[in-house]
Specification:
Radius of gyration: 16 Å
Helix content: 10-25%
Distance between the termini: 7 Å
Number of helices: 7
Strand content: 25-35%
Number of strands: 8
DNA sequence: GACCAGATGTACT
DNA sequence: GTACATCTGGTCT
């Protein structure tokens, strides 16, 4: 890619707009690859580039929390407007973050699964307990831990540049770099388990664009 | 690479 | 009350 982005460059980027999230969930998932997550923390601004996501298709998707129209306090954010963050707690110790898509009343989302640090790597490493390397942010629980996301961020508005938001710095991920496959951890979801809704950028390609 | 323990919120009976 | 979860890290092979 071009020269490394400075903190100043990053704070000038406009957040992705509301209409970005209102599209088809699979389209949103694919176009999120290569986008930046910006995160304000007491330690400073952090930026990471998304490398892996999964689409969750709402009421018809057995793997989705809102399958069959489930609407509970936990899933309430998914039923709301697009462009918000849905964070939930799982396995007794991990958080997972999703971005809500489509229109209010259509509870679909994209799970953020993996990323590479662009700014504030040392902060991320510290929050990850000193672990570094290629596995730094290669899972949804790790991503939340590294970015300091938890249930306090559930419902956060991603279209305003405060707390946490997403932005496009112009980096493009060619289709040839994207691997498509079945989602992780949804084996018991019947036929939905096989749907190819996981999208992952080949890491070797991505490192070229990550810096 | 495969296997497994770990810890607790959430959904449903 | 109970089963299980959009997972991770450590251990063993």
């Amino acid at each position: 890619m071009s020269k490394p982005l400075s903190r100043r460059d990053l704070t000038r980027l406009a957040p992705l707009e509301h209409r970005f999230y209102q599209r088809d969930t699979v389209d949103v998932a694919v176009s999120l690859l290569g986008k930046l997550i910006l995160r304000e923390l007491p330690e400073g601004l952090i930026a990471v580039r998304l490398t892996e996501v999964e689409a969750y298709l709402g009421v018809v998707d057995r793997a989705c929390h809102t399958f069959g129209g489930r609407r509970t306090p936990r899933t309430e954010v998914m039923w709301g407007d697009a462009g918000r963050l849905y964070v939930y707690f799982t396995y007794g110790m991990h958080h997972c973050a999703n971005v809500v898509t489509r229109a209010a009343g259509v509870p679909e989302a994209v799970l953020l699964r993996g990323a590479l640090p662009v700014l504030g790597r040392e902060v991320v490493v510290a929050r990850r307990g000193g672990r570094d390397g290629r596995t730094l942010l290669d899972g949804p629980g790790k991503l939340c831990q590294g970015l300091g996301l938890d249930r306090a961020d559930n419902g956060a508005d991603l279209t305003s540049a405060s707390g946490v938001w997403l932005a496009d710095d112009g980096a493009r991920v060619p289709d040839a770099w994207v691997r498509r496959g079945p989602r992780v951890g949804v084996a018991s979801a019947g036929e939905a388990a096989a749907w190819p809704l996981r999208f992952q950028v080949e890491l070797d390609s991505m490192t070229a664009v990550a810096e």
